[in-house]
Amino acid sequence: MKIRCIANTGASLPENYLDPAVNRTTETVFRLTVGKEYVVYAIDEAEGNVWYYICDDNFIYYPQKHCAPLFEVVDDRVSKYWRFKLWENGLLEVAFPHWLKDPYFYEKLTDQEPAEVDLFKRIKALMDLEAEIPPEETEAAEKELATAPV
């Protein structure tokens, strides 16, 4: 899945995304480039807000969570590396299996735990390659599969 940044300030966000406690206000400028495309590595949704985990313009070694209204989807193909999880608290997450199996995976990743950093680096490389495949190529393969005799 790929998205394109259409805005990079809090002024462009719906009110339900604003949270001064985490410096997400109408004055906030996010580390995003308007017009730039980003690969989505995970998605979560809570209380009606959707978040994309991307490697933004300040990427070091882990993806950052960004508000979905700052983007438009330019390639809606779902990654073959994604799985879905609905947590008991109602949080819906879409991510690769390791992220979903360990509720502390993201925290370990941001804390620079070597195993999680290495794993994300490998998954990121696979998802980046996957995102480079033109949609037309996968659509042709899907059409062929759909019309194949059973």
Number of helices: 4
Label the overall shape.
globular
- How far from one another are the termini? 29 Å
The total tally of domains equals: 1
The biggest sheet, with number of strands, parallel, antiparallel or mixed sense and barrel status, is:
7 strands, antiparallel
Chain-averaged pLDDT: 92
Strand content: 15-25%
Q: State the share of residues found in helices, binned by percent.
A: 25-40%
Spans where pLDDT lies below 50 across 5 or more residues = none
**Rg to the nearest angstrom?**
17 Å
Class by SSE composition: alpha+beta
Topology, number of strands: 7
Order of helices and strands: EEEEEEEHHHH
Structure write-up:
By secondary structure, the protein is α+β, with helices and mostly antiparallel strands. Helices cover 29% and strands 25% of the residues. Strands 1, 2, 3, 4, 5, 6 and 7 form a seven-stranded antiparallel sheet that branches. The longest helix has 19 residues, at 114-132. The radius of gyration is 17 Å and the shape is globular.
Tag the structure with descriptive keywords.
single chain, 150 residues, alpha+beta, seven-stranded antiparallel β-sheet, 4 helices, 29% helix, 25% strand, globular
Short description:
The chain has 150 residues and is α+β, with helices and mostly antiparallel strands. It is 29% helix and 25% strand.
Topology:
Layout: E1 2-5, E2 37-46, E3 49-54, E4 64-67, E5 71-75, E6 83-86, E7 92-95, H1 97-101, H2 105-110, H3 114-132, H4 135-147
Antiparallel strand pairs: 1-2, 1-5, 2-3, 2-7, 3-4, 6-7
